[in-house]
Design goal:
The structure is a homodimer of 242-residue chains. With 242 residues, chain A is an alpha+beta fold. The first copy, chain A, folds into two domains: 64 residues, Orthogonal Bundle (Arc Repressor Mutant, subunit A), CATH 1.10.10; 159 residues, Chorismate lyase (3-Layer(aba) Sandwich), CATH 3.40.1410.10. Helix content of chain A is 26%, strand content 36%. Chain A contains seven helices and twelve strands. In chain A, the strands form three sheets. A seven-stranded antiparallel beta sheet of chain A has the order 8-5-6-7-11-10-9. In chain A, β6 and β7 form a beta hairpin. The longest helix of chain A is centred in the first third of the chain and has 14 residues. Chain A is elongated and about 65 Å long. The N terminus of chain A is likely disordered. β9 of chain A pairs antiparallel with β12 of chain B. The structure holds a DNA duplex (19 and 19 nucleotides). Chains A, B: It comes from Falsiroseomonas stagni DSM 19981. Chains A, B: GO terms for molecular function: DNA binding; DNA-binding transcription factor activity. Chains A, B: This is GntR family transcriptional regulator. Chains A, B: Keywords: DNA-binding, Transcription, Transcription regulation.
DNA sequence: CAGTGGTCTAGACCACTTA
DNA sequence: AAGTGGTCTAGACCACTGC
């Protein structure tokens, strides 16, 4: 309770907020089990039904996973999850294959005004800048530029020139405690610039799908910007509207 | 109950299925109020809590709208809803404006094998084929080809050459009893063909965003195929991942 | 067998809408 | 004031998991 600004949200929403904050702050680590529903109800002083409704909300937002007979667990970013929820590219037949990555550049720089704005930073703030190519079934069909605020990813670095199979979002969570909860994407068709065309083995001016993403953490703060260029000769970006 | 194939789904899921079928079959018309929760519970022989859970599922799928103090209503496809859920195109500043349409062609034909397949039809089935341009803020930036099975849209026709402001999905529901519940889209970047470039005022080979959509009705049957070509000079396709 | 989440019920009370 | 959905509680029982 807070006399100055009483929380008028329903009890279950307040309960959900409390539980979410514990997850966001790492009080319960990703992958670990959280207490049984009756225990939570007793601790928080609400009925089991209210706890259940709160947990249902967290489950729909995929912050937790509940399994009958086993318990409730804080969701960990597995490669499968990152691949299924945040990788919207498939082959023409609809098959979704895990890509590999080849890091071309990785540097820490001072953000220009244009780089700072989408991430809600001040111009000049320290920023990690990554450029990589991604291969699906051995073919280089994706170019990606990524910007990360140094403040959230201290000491971040990727090995240039080496092949990577790990999903970045798994790495963010494991090494920097940053969980990506959602992302917004804006798509456009562009003509390939000369250098990008060369990297993808295309002619200058070939049509490319540009995917501009801002990814947000559990507290809905922007923590990653990435621009993906996809050669759609053999792949599609898929979206579901419902 | 059915002795041969007993329904082992939870009661609330069975209840949800029953209510959904009534909506899909038009037992309750779009926009009309459905009975109060206690009445439904009594009629179906389940507890009010079970009915509530079933209605919650229908609400999340946007088949119904519940308003405290007023009642529960079958969702009607308003222009706003069609625009917000099924129109993913915005201006560069993120503004979403309602487009107008200019029908270029509208004909009923026998489906080729390629046209029949995505809609789950047999080759030769009757099909309505539409081509239209869409304007946002007076600028023609969208070309659209649409295919509809005659069986679901008997007598369908659009006035060629006239300006239209109604959303097609509102018209499908009002005039043909077809409610679009969800859609799948596959996106690619392509080079503009000569005739399409001409209609959009672009040069041949200019990059265009191609959006291939299959839309499904309440029973999850494919009922519309459409291919949209978007000039992304001043617009973006937006997607949310969460 | 003990412990977990999942289902189902029953009812009290609150908040909002309409008349 | 009457009627609606929204919240909150309390508890019984079921289904699944792992020891």
């Amino acid at each position: 309770m807070n006399a100055l600004r009483p929380d008028s949200r329903p009890l279950y929403a307040q309960t959900e907020a409390i539980l979410m904050r514990r997850i966001a702050e790492g009080f319960w680590a990703p992958g670990s089990m959280i207490p049984p529903e009756p225990d939570l109800a007793a601790e928080l002083g609400v009925s089991p039904g209210t706890v259940r409704k709160a947990l249902g909300g967290l489950e729909r937002r995929r912050l937790i996973e509940r399994r009958q007979g086993r318990g409730t667990f804080v969701a960990a970013h597995t490669s499968e999850r990152a691949l299924f929820h945040f990788f919207r590219i498939t082959a023409l037949d609809g098959q979704r294959r895990a890509p590999t990555s080849h890091v071309l550049e990785c540097a820490t720089v001072a953000a220009s005004a244009e780089e700072a704005q989408p991430l809600g930073l001040a111009a000049g703030a320290a920023l990690h800048r990554v450029k990589r190519a991604r291969l699906i079934a051995g073919a280089a069909c994706i170019l990606e530029r990524i910007w990360l605020p140094e403040a959230r990813f201290p000491g971040f670095a990727l090995p240039v020139g080496r092949e990577m199979t790990d999903e970045l979002y798994v790495l963010y969570q494991r090494d920097h405690g940053v969980t990506i909860a959602r992302a917004e994407e804006r798509l456009a068709a562009i003509a390939a610039a000369p250098d990008d065309a060369g990297l993808l083995g295309l002619e200058e001016g070939a049509p490319l799908l540009e995917i501009a993403r801002i990814a947000f953490d559990l507290q809905d703060r922007p923590v990653e910007r990435r621009v993906t260029l996809l050669d759609t000769a053999a792949h599609r970006y898929i979206a579901n509207l419902d």
